[in-house]
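Input:
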Amino acid sequence: MDWINAIVQGTLLGGLYALFAAGLSLIFGVMRLVNIAHGDLIVLAAYLGLSVSTGLGIHPLMALALVVPIMAAIGYVLQRGILNRTLGDDLLPPLLVTFGLSVILQNALLEIYSADPQKLQAGAIETASLQLGPLALGYLPLLMFVCSVAIIAGLQWMFYHTALGRAFRATSDRQDVAQLMGLNRAHVFGLAMALALAVTAVAGVFLGIRTSFDPSIGGGRLIFGFEAVIIGGLGNIWGTLAGGVVLGISQSIGAEINPGWQVLAGHVVFLAIIALRPRGLFPRMD
Amino acid sequence: MTHAVTRSSRTSRIAAVVGVALLLGLAAAPWWAGRADMRLMGEIFLFLSLATLWNLLAGYAGLVSVGQQAYVGLGGYSLFALTILAGVPAIWAIPLVGLLGALVAVPVAVLIFRLRGAYFAIGTWVIAEVFRLTAAQVSVLGGGSGTSLPADVVRDMAEGRDAREALAYWLALGVAVLVLGLAFAILRSRLGLALTALRDNELAARSLGIDIWRTKFIVYVATAGLTAMIGALIFIQKLRISPDAAFSVNDWTAFVIFIVVIGGIGTLEGPIIGTLVFFALREILADLGTIYLIALGVVAIVVMLRAPAGLWGLIRARTGAELFPISHRVRGETQQGDR
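Output:
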C-alpha cells in the first residue's frame, strides 16, 4: 500500500515538476535558449508571492493575479533588453549571461529577504484531504496537479491553434524567413519569454505553498525542470508532463526506500534514461 | 622573396624571460611573504589552474561544462578518504586523487557525451549533484555535515606550521605551473591543432578527418584528473570538507567561468588576466558581501555582451600580442629585421 501511495504522491509532485519544465521547454523550443537562471526565476516568483500575499493580506493563490503579470513583464523586458543580444549559433553567450543573471538574482534575494527559509501560508486547504479508500489525496496537491495539466493543455492548444503559436513555430523553424513574412523576431521572442515566466510564476507560487524555500534552492529546481524536459523528450509539450511525472514517481519511490535517496533516485533514473534513450521517452524534435 | 614561419615573437620571448623571473620570485615567497599573503597567492594559483582547465574544455574542446565542481569535490573527498580511512600520507594521496578523478571521468564522459550543447552543460551539473548527494551519504566522512582533516594527518605533512604553510603554497604553485605548462604543451602539439580547429569550426574540423569524440574525450578525462588534484589541494588548505562546500556550483564553476569570460575565452592568457581581475575585485569589494557577487555577475554580463573576446581579446585586437607562442606567423625574409 505504501508503494501505491508513493506512486500517487509522486505523480502529483510530477505536476509541479512539469510546470518547472514547461517554461524551459517553451523558451528552448522557440529560441534555442537554455536559461540557467530559470530555477532562480522560480524562486523569485515564490518571493513575489510572499511579498504580495503578506503585503496585501491575501491568499497566496489570489496573489497569482499580480505575480503572473509581474513575472510576464519581467520576462518581456529581460528578453528584449538582454537575452536577445546573446542569441546566435554560439552556445556560450546565452549560457554565461544567464549564469550571471542567476548569481545576481540569488544574491539580490539574499540581500532583500535574508537566507531564512520562508513558506507561503495557504490556510486550511493545506491539511484537507480527499479519502479514496486507503489513499489520502491532499486537496492542495490535487489542485496543483489539475492546474498543471490545464496549463500544459493550454500551452499545447496555444502552440498549434493560435496566431501567436504559429508565430512561435515559424520563428523556431526559420528565423530569417519568419522575419521576411513580417514577424518581428525580437518581439516574438519577448512574448515567448513573457509566457514562459507567466508559467514560471504559477510554478513558483505552487512551490512556495508546497515546501519552504530560500534564495539558494534555484539550481536544484532548474535541474528538476531540465530532467523532466529530457525524460519527456525534447520539443514535446505533453512530454514535459510525462517527464515530470516519471521524475516525481522516481523521487517518491526513492524516498520510500530511504529518505536520503529522494533526490538521488530522480537523478539516477534520469541518467539511466539518457543511457538507454538519449532522446527521451517521447521525442518530437531533433 | 622567401618566407619563414615562426612561432615565437619578441613579445613572447620577453614574456618567457619575465615569466621565469616571476616564477623564481614566487617560488621564494615563503622567505619574503607573510602567512596571509601566501594563503591568498595559493588561492590565486588554484583558481588560475581551475580557470585554465575550464578554458581548455569550453574554450577549445567545445565542452561547456557547468559541473566541474563534481571533480573538485571528488578530489577533496578522495583526499580525505585516502588519508583518514586508508592512512595514505597526504603528499602521496594527491597524485592518486588525480588518477582517480581521471578514472571516474571515463564512464561519466561515455554517458554525458550523449547530450549535446546546452543539455550537455546541465547534464554535467546533474553528475555533480549525484556526487554531492552520494558524498552526503558517506557517514564515515561526516555525511551531510562533513568532517575535518585529523590533526595527525596534518602534522605528518611537514614539521611545524610555517613549513606546512610553505608546503601548501608550493603545491598550489606547482599545480598551477603544471596545468599552464601542460595546456601550453597540448596546444602546441598535434592534439592542440585538432583542438584549435575544433574551437574554430567543428564541422570543418571533422571534414578534415579529426576524430571529434576521441579528442573531446581525451581533454575531458585529462581535465577531470587535474581538477580533482586541484580539489585535493583546495581542501588541504581549508582542512575541512562538507558536501555543500566541496560541490558548490558557485565557487568552483560560476566564478571560474566568470574569470575565463572576463579575461578572454579561447586563449591561454585570458584566464591569467581574468584571475587577477577577479581577485582584485574581491580584495576591493570583499566587505560588501553579496553586493560584490552581484557586481561580479554584472561585470560578467557586460563583458559577454560588449567584449565577448574578453580583456585579453581587446588587447590582442589592438596589438596582436601573444605571450604564449602558439600560433604560426608567416613572415617575409625582408621583414626579419623588425621582429
